[in-house]
Design goal:
Length: 266
């Protein structure tokens, strides 16, 4: 209580605050008025933390707005769709489709590009546990080279949506290109930052693809696939100049078109 504050050390106050699920305004004001700078600093830290938590809660609420409106319009089951691996020089493009229940709680959910690898790995099993349905699909390097990356990505989206165990009433697809499936669809630019199910799909696709690139690193040592995931980093380009291209590389991509040396492994 506020009356106890002058008799407790800053360390003890911090311990007690850490045990509380919430701190009322009266207690916070008393901490902020304390004569000790350490206690006032404790109050300021708590206020900053509470402001961050409020901003995060508001962000997550905004991410659910579109899907809530669509459910109110009659689309009860909404599949978010996103992909990973459009830009790399190597590896497949991987798409995921995720149907989340309205009550799903996924603190920290965000566009996979805004998350650290450890955060994505932590969210990945949570998404699988709470989702009504998840499907992952890919378009292989050969298909990327034959169709072009845009059409290969659409193919991966189609495969992911058709792979869902539950048929969605609507597909929310990140970007501008609809999928070639007989479903109502809505494309959303930056959907992975704006819609919960699309953000979840972006994480599932990214984690899956990163793990695939780790396996390719074992098959083709020396390229650093486990580090750059096939993207056109300076280290990757140097490895290509030194070792040539592998069957995992996309020959249709401009930086690889002039490569004459090919590494035949497996």
């Amino acid at each position: 209580s506020p009356a106890e504050i002058p008799h407790l050390s800053a360390v003890e106050l911090a311990r007690r605050l850490g045990q509380l699920s919430s701190v009322d305004e009266q207690l916070l004001r008393a901490l902020a008025r304390d004569r000790r700078a350490s206690v006032r600093a404790l109050a300021a830290r708590y206020q900053r933390r509470r402001a961050r938590e409020a901003r995060e809660a508001a962000r997550l609420a905004r991410m659910g707005t579109l899907e809530a409106e669509l459910r109110d319009a009659g689309f009860a089951l909404i599949a978010g769709v996103d992909e990973a691996g459009v830009a790399p020089l190597a590896g497949p493009v991987v798409a995921a489709a995720v149907i989340l229940p309205p009550e799903a709680s996924l603190p920290g959910l965000n566009d996979s590009k805004q998350l650290r690898a450890a955060e994505r790995e932590a969210l990945y099993p949570q998404i699988l546990r709470c989702a009504l349905a998840v499907a992952v699909a890919r378009a292989e390097v050969e298909e990327i080279d034959r169709l072009n990356i845009l059409q290969a990505t659409r193919l991966a989206h189609r495969r992911a949506l058709l792979g869902l165990a539950v048929r969605p009433h609507l597909a929310l697809i990140d970007g501008t290109q609809p999928a070639d499936v007989p479903l109502p669809q809505l494309t959303v630019i930056d959907g992975d930052a704006l819609c919960r199910s699309v953000a979840a799909a972006s994480i599932v696709a990214k984690v899956t693809r990163d793990r695939l690139m780790g396996a390719l690193a074992q098959a083709y040592p020396g390229y650093g696939f486990e580090v750059h995931k096939g993207y056109a980093t300076a280290a990757h380009r140097r490895a290509i100049e030194r070792l040539g291209i592998t069957p995992a590389h996309r020959r249709s991509f401009l930086p690889l078109r002039g490569q004459q040396q090919s590494l035949a492994i497996g």
